[in-house]
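> example.struct
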C-alpha cells in the first residue's frame, strides 16, 4: 500500500505533545495508514518514551523518504533545539515557544516542497509563543502567514459531524460584529469548495443561529433577520445548498442525524462546545485553504498532567488517520 507521509511537529516540549506522539507511534492503527515523520528534539522524545513506558525506538532521518513507517519506530527529524535541562515540564517557557514554532515552520517547509503529503499538529502554548516573541497567537495564524494564505478555514470533524467557524480567536463582542451578509456569503462559498475538495458533494450546509432561537424574528436580536437570512437567500439564488438560520440548540443534533452535511458555526465556542461534548478526544481540526492538508488534535498542552505519561493519544492517532484519509484530495 502506498501510504502518505504525514509530518508531525512535536509541539510545545513542556506539554503533552511528546507523550501523545510516542504513544501514537506504538499503535499499529497509525502505521497501517501512514508513514509519520516527527519533527522535534530527540532528548525530549526519549524522556517521553521513558515516562510513558512504551516500546518505541527512535530512528533519526534527514529526509522524509527515509521514514520506515513501522509500528514502534519513530522516524525523527531532530532539530536539537529543546534541551530538557533548560526548561521545566508543565511551565510556560520562551525556549519551548521558540522550539515549537521552529518545529511547525519546518513541517510547513517540507509540505510546501511536497516532501510530505500532509501535516498533523500537536499542542502549542500561546503564552510560550508570546514569551518567545513569536508574533502569532496560534497554529492557524502561523500556517496562514508562512504559506501566504489570506484567511484559512477551520473545519472540525468528529464521527461524521463537520463544523466550520465564521470566526476564531476573537472576543465574543467582535464575533457578533463579524456576522455580516457579505462575510457569510464568502464563507459558505469557500466552505462548499473545501467540502468538495474533501469529496463531500452531497447534502446541505446549515448556518447556525446567533441568538437564542435565532432571535425569534427580531424579538431579541436582529442579526438573523438583518444579515443571515439575506445571505441565505442570495446563496440559494446562486445555487448553493444552504439553509439557515437554524437554532444553535438543535442544528448540531440535526447534522448528526444526517439532515445536514455540515454546520457553519457563527463563533468559536458555539461549535467547539458541540463537537467536544459529542466526542472530545476524536474532534479533529482541519485547516482548509492551505496549499496542503493540515489536521490537528483539538486539545491543549495540558501542563497540569505533562510529564506523567498519562495523556491519551486518541486525538493524535485520529489526527494522523484523518490526515492520511484526506491527503490524496490535496495531491497535485
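> example.seq
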Amino acid at each position: 500500500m502506498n501510504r502518505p507521509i504525514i509530518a508531525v511537529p512535536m509541539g510545545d516540549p513542556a506539554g503533552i505533545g511528546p507523550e501523545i506522539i510516542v504513544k501514537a507511534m506504538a499503535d499499529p492503527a497509525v502505521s497501517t495508514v501512514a508513514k509519520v515523520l516527527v519533527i522535534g528534539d530527540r532528548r525530549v522524545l526519549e524522556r517521553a518514551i521513558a515516562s510513558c513506558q512504551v516500546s518505541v525506538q527512535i530512528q533519526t532521518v534527514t529526509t522524509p523518504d527515509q521514514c520506515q513507517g513501522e509500528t514502534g519506530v519513530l522516524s525523527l527529524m531532530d532539530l536539537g533545539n529543546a534541551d530538557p535541562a533548560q526548561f521545566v515540564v508543565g511551565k510556560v517557557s520562551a525556549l519551548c515557544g521558540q522550539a515549537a514554532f521552529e518545529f511547525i515552520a519546518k513541517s510547513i517547509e517540507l509540505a510546501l516542497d511536497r516532501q510530505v503529503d500532509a501535516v498533523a499538529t500537536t499542542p502549542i502554548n500561546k503564552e510560550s509563543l508570546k514569551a518567545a516573541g513569536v508574533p502569532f497567537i496560534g497554529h492557524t495564524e502561523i500556517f496562514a502567514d508562512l504559506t501566504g494564505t489570506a484567511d484559512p478555514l477551520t473545519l472540525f470533524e468528529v464521527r461524521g459531524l463537520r463544523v466550520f467557524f465564521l470566526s476564531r480567536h476573537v472576543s465574543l463582542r467582535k464575533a457578533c460584529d463579524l456576522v455580516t451578509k457579505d462575510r457569510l456569503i464568502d464563507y459558505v462559498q469557500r466552505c462548499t469548495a473545501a467540502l468538495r475538495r474533501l469529496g463531500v458533494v452531497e447534502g446541505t450546509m446549515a448556518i447556525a443561529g446567533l441568538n437564542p432561537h435565532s432571535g425569534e424574528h427580531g424579538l431579541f436580536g436582529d442579526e438573523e433577520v438583518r444579515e443571515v437570512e439575506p445571505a441565505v437567500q442570495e446563496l440559494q439564488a446562486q445555487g448553493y445548498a444552504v439553509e439557515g438560520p437554524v437554532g444553535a440548540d438543535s442544528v448540531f443534533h440535526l447534522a448528526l442525524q444526517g439532515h445536514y452535511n455540515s454546520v457553519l458555526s457563527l463563533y468559536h465556542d458555539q461549535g467547539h462546545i458541540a463537537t467536544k461534548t459529542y466526542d472530545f478526544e476524536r474532534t479533529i481540526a482541519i485547516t482548509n485553504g492551505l496549499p496542503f492538508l493540515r489536521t490537528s488534535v483539538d486539545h491543549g498542552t495540558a501542563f497540569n498532567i505533562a510529564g506523567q505519561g498519562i495523556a491519551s493519544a486518541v486525538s493524535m492517532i485520529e489526527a494522523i488517520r484523518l490526515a492520511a484519509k484526506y491527503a490524496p484530495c490535496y495531491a497535485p
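> remarks
The chain has a mean pLDDT of 95.
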